[in-house]
Amino acid sequence: MKKILFITLLLAAGIFSTSCSKDFLIEKPVDEIYSNNLLVNYTGFYSMISAERGLMRNEHGKFSSGTAISPNSAFNGGSDLYFGNQRISTATWWNWPNLIVQFTDGSVFENIFGDMYEMINCSNMIINRAENNPDIDWEGNTAAQDEINKTSIIAQAKFYRAWAYRHLTYCFGDVPLSLEKITGSNYRTDWNRDSVEKVREAMIEDLTYCVEHLGWRTDGNNTKPNQAIARTYLAETYLAMNNPQKAADVLQPLCEGADYYLMTSRFGANASNPGNCFIDVFRTPLYSDGNFEVLYTFMNAEEESIPYGTTGVCEVRNMYKNYYSYLPEISSLSHPDYEGKSVKLFWSLNGGKGATRLAVSIGAWKLYEWDNQQNNDIRYDEHSVVKHLYFLDNNNNTYEVLNKNSEPLINLNPTKAMFATSEGTIKNYTLPSTKKWDNVHSNFERADTDYSFNNVSYMRLSEAYFLYAEALLKLGRPDESALWINKIRSRANVSQINSSEVTIDFILDERARELLCEGQRRHTLMRLSQENNGDERDINNYFKRRIRTYNEVCGQIDGGTSMLGTATVSHGTDQYDVPVLFAIPKVFIDSNTKVKIEQNPGYPTY
Q1: Which tens digit of pLDDT belongs to each residue from 71-96?
Q2: Residue 305 to residues 50, 309, 317, 451, 454: CA-CA distances in angstroms?
Q3: What DSSP string describes 263-297?
Q4: Which of 121, 235, 383, 603 could staple 275 via S-S, CB 3.0–4.6 A?
């Protein structure tokens, strides 16, 4: 059933039905899962919290309809670090930012808007019922344990609500603030767009509650909302509100405490394989397996009744890893023992299939060359980045696949398609890509599947360190700021910096080197561009300026010169009229019949 994507969307999880009978209207539906009989005890609340965890995890999955990309890719594509390597008709602004104006009713924006409010309404239902129903059985052995169970549920629901509003404010700017569950009795068509400041004040209240009521690791692991990730988001929100002192205060216990630290030695399930301590973090992201660095992990799905165990939970590898099997040198490979299955064999030897929806810009890869550290940086070595491709010879020995000139296939050479004067498919499959998300299914028959089947790191301690460094820099303490950046650089085995080298641009450069293909790059650039009432459309802010500097595809300007020496035309980042915020979905504007909702600047009006 098609989901109605506007703010009054009712929680689908609250109307699941396992059966239907003729006596439904006269019998109490005890075998039905409605919010009225689900949210009566701790077990019921926990079930709905688990559903929210699945909604959050879908950031690395696919949109429910209309496009083959993931929400996470929409939060990164078209920034300074990534361009669209294959034609995605629903996200052409990844390569041509000025084409974003064509998507006022696009499925990507509708899905993000609707999915976030689905999360918000679910959280509101949990919070409102938990706070206002005195008859709930919190299943504790004592009154104190009851209170702990109750506050844990409320805190996790508030975390998810703040997480959803974080995405909404960075994507759409001013959005309606809803803190009460939407029901048939309070259905509204008179919403207004509340200011980003007002929404962030609500986020601060929610995240502060999380910090006060959640442990460093909920249920002893890093797979549920916890104090560490709540502190990180709270600090980021304070920075967005121009309050670096509060950001630093919130981060100090996390960054300077002993509960989390960067992994600097080999560890975990990958430790016996060729690699480094940096890539080990992604191979074994759970605290229960010895990872003290990852703040939050997306768990793989529950086991199914199928021989190969689990179902894929995310498309993150498919989004960021290049589609190397499309190269003629790869597609022509064959092996006598794998007739008709050479592609499966290739991907089983090379970390799993990629579809390269997003390619890392050449400018971003060049950032690793700063201070001539590219040969030292473990984040850029062959264990962390695809630099070679492998296959088996007829004796089943592994060998490197080379191009016609006996050179590695992987290189940083641009192609003509990257500088074409019209929107189209680039398909530069010789570019490197990250190995952070490499994972091959244990069943060979699924070695070329799109989905990833492993636990996935969602946020690491490095994110908190960068925010801490940023806050300290803005407080006029560059020496301390450099200290936290150097902790990250030390683990990466690269040169240290001094206080005079610390700038916001340097922090953004180091974020790129450390967090490539992680996080939400558009959000970070948006936050910094809007700082101190800045205009995100200004052509010289962090957002547009850095795209022009580092993204050779979507940052092209009129009358410029490409890497191939050809003339370029403007893709929009040198034009003020090109929007950066996403369009408010037309379906919401049309449904809000009692109040006229203004569209974001730069888009067509209705």
Answers
A1: 999 999 999 999 999 988 889 999 99
A2: 21, 7, 25, 18, 18
A3: --S--STTTTSS--HHHHHHHS--GGGT--SEEEE
A4: 383
* Tokens 């802010």 sit on residue: 541
Distance CA 422, CA 569 (A): 9
Helices (H), 98-177: 107-132, 143-172
Do strands 15-16 and 33-34 pair parallel, antiparallel, or not at all (unpaired)? antiparallel
**Range of weakest confidence among 62-66, 192-196, 547-551, 594-598:** 62-66
- Residue 243 carries which DSSP code? -
- Look-up of token digits 């090109």: 578
Q: Are 303 and 233 in contact (CB under 8 A)?
A: no
Cite the DSSP H helix spans in 381-477.
461-474
Q: Rounded to a whole number, what is the distance in angstroms from the first to the last CA of the chain? A: 28
Candidates 110, 121, 114, 136; CA nearest to 184 is 121
- Sign of the CA dihedral with 394 first, then 396, 397, and 400 last: positive
What letter represents residue 149's amino acid? Answer: N
- Residue holding tokens 């629903």? 90
Element (H, E) at 354: none
CA angle 530, 117, 520 (to 5 degrees): 40
CB count within 10 Å of CB 334 equals 12
Q: Which residue has the tokens 């997306």?
A: 298
Cα separation of 416 and 419, whole Å? 6
Q: What is the DSSP string of 413-460?
A: ---GGGG-SS------TTS--B-TT----SSGGGTT-SSB-S-EEEEE
Structural contact between residues 315 and 452, judged by C-beta atoms closer than 8 angstroms = yes
What is the SS3 assignment for 357? Answer: coil
Other CB atoms within 10 Å distance of the CB of residue 231: 27
Which residues have a Cβ under 8 Å from the Cβ of 481 and sit 6 or more positions away? 469, 470, 472, 473, 499, 502
Supply 57's token pair.
């995890």
- Each residue's pLDDT tens digit, 506-546: 999 999 999 999 999 999 999 999 999 999 999 999 999 99
Give the residue from 130, 124, 94 showing the smallest Cα distance to 10: 124
Compute the distance between CA of residue 283 and CA of residue 281 in angstroms, rounded to an integer. Answer: 6
pTM: 0.93
| Dihedral angle sign, alpha carbons of residues 357, 361, 366, 367 | negative
CA 596 distance to own-chain centroid? 32
Q: Is 586 exposed, middle or buried (0-12, 13-18, 19+ CB in 10 A)?
A: buried
Q: Which of 388, 316, 421, 325 is nearest to 358 (CA)?
A: 316
Integer Cα distance of 449 and 344 in angstroms = 9
The CA radius of gyration of the chain, in Å to the nearest whole number, is 24
Q: Which domains does the chain have, with CATH numbers?
A: 12-213 (1.25.40.390), 316-457 (no CATH), 459-579 (1.25.40)
CB 546 within 8 A of CB 70: no
- HSE value, Cβ hemisphere, 13 Å, CA-based, for 276: 17
